[in-house]
Amino acid sequence: MNEPCDYAKSDSWDAFCIAKVLLARLDELPDANPQDLYWTLGQLVARRNSIVKHASGLKNQMHQQLSYHYPSYKKFFCDIDGKAALAFWEKYPAPHQALMVGVDELAEYLRKASHNTCSTRKAEGLPVEFSSRASLKKTSYFGYD
């Protein structure tokens, strides 16, 4: 069992070592403790809660950024992380970029991004709302242009 340590650490080496121990010393290994399952489950639940909390924080940051550039964004995309909304935010991070596109092109883009669930009416309302905003200014996505 004592082999020289001139190996490269890898998953295949780990698997080999585990298999070797299981074959050679199975009778010496301790029995599995059922409490280990509860510990593992607790760790998974804690990790999930951490991920959910982080995702919630990121979504709040997104709301904050969107409200700066698109003050009335909730009128058009109630689900800001839906397919159409995410595609729209990615392609048009600032309102002036969306205003440079025709309604037909915008409607086609939203339909494609949403797999035909986004209506033409939504695309028609977007440029009207953006052009009527007094706070509309031509800035870059990061606000320094």
Quick overview:
The protein has 145 residues and is mainly alpha-helical. The protein is built from 7 helices and no strands.
User: Helix and strand succession?
Assistant: HHHHHHH
| pLDDT < 50 stretches | 133-145
DSSP strand tally = 0
How much is the radius of gyration in Å?
27 Å
Task: Give your account of this protein's structure.
- The chain has 145 residues and is mainly α.
- It has a domain at 34-131.
- Helix content is 63%, strand content 0%.
- The chain has 7 helices and no strands.
Topology, please?
Elements: H1 11-25, H2 34-69, H3 73-76, H4 83-91, H5 95-99, H6 103-113, H7 120-131
Helix pairs in contact: 4-6, 6-7
Which features does this protein show?
7 helices, disordered C terminus, Transp_IS110-like_N, DNA binding, mainly alpha, transposase activity, 145 residues, Transposase
